[in-house]
Amino acid sequence: MFVLVVAVLWLLGASPPARAQGSSPDRCEPARGAVAVRASVTGADALTVSYTVVNSTRSPLIWLSVGSGGAQRTRLVVQQTPKVTSAPAGWMGTVVYPEETPYMHLWWESRDATAGLPVNAATGGFAIEVASPATVPPGFRGMDGNPVRPIDFGTLPFTAGGTGVQCWWGRVTRP
Predict the structure, then answer these.
(1) Pick from 140, 125, 126: which is nearest to 80 by CA?
(2) How far apart are CA 125 and CA 78, in angstroms?
(3) What sections of the chain are H helices per DSSP?
(4) Domains of the chain with CATH codes
(5) Which residue from 74, 24, 28, 50 is spatially nearest to 122, judged by alpha carbons?
(6) Contact 106, 66 (CB under 8 A)
(7) Could you give the CA distance from residue 94 to residue 101 in angstroms, rounded to a whole number?
(8) Residue among 61, 65, 81 at smallest CA distance from 73
(9) pLDDT per residue rounded down to tens, the chain (175 residues)
């Protein structure tokens, strides 16, 4: 039933919740080379972070979440609020702020069944703009009093999903 609801939402063009297509993050498999996400970071004050996804699975990939993978989540740092600037052809990207949590993640999904990332292929075109870590003052503390650590968008956790309920998680790497 769950898969049917997600399929209907997808066909209607609605974006399901960030974990809907891949089921629970606890049910995703470690990527272990099946999926790799590589980051290229350029710029000084404003950074451009470009992600390349390599699909070595047996299924086309139809969604990608950067900032959450397995049990790992990325805490939002307001000074580094990202903006999605591009997506591959046939894909759409956004920043997701899960309701009533201090977390965020980047979300891209294929808007067309034929635009998924094919098996044994790689593609770039996933990009964001964000302020550099230097925009977070040393010693800055959040509302809870804990020190705020800048986000390194080049090493975030990721989760990627294929058709059906297959999904994999890992960590973004820099070449």
Answers:
(1) 140
(2) 25
(3) 2-11
(4) 18-135+150-171 (2.60.40.290)
(5) 50
(6) yes
(7) 17
(8) 65
(9) 333 333 433 444 444 444 344 345 568 999 999 999 999 999 999 999 999 999 999 999 999 999 999 889 999 999 999 999 999 999 999 999 999 999 999 999 999 878 999 999 999 999 999 999 999 998 888 888 888 899 999 999 999 999 877 999 999 999 8
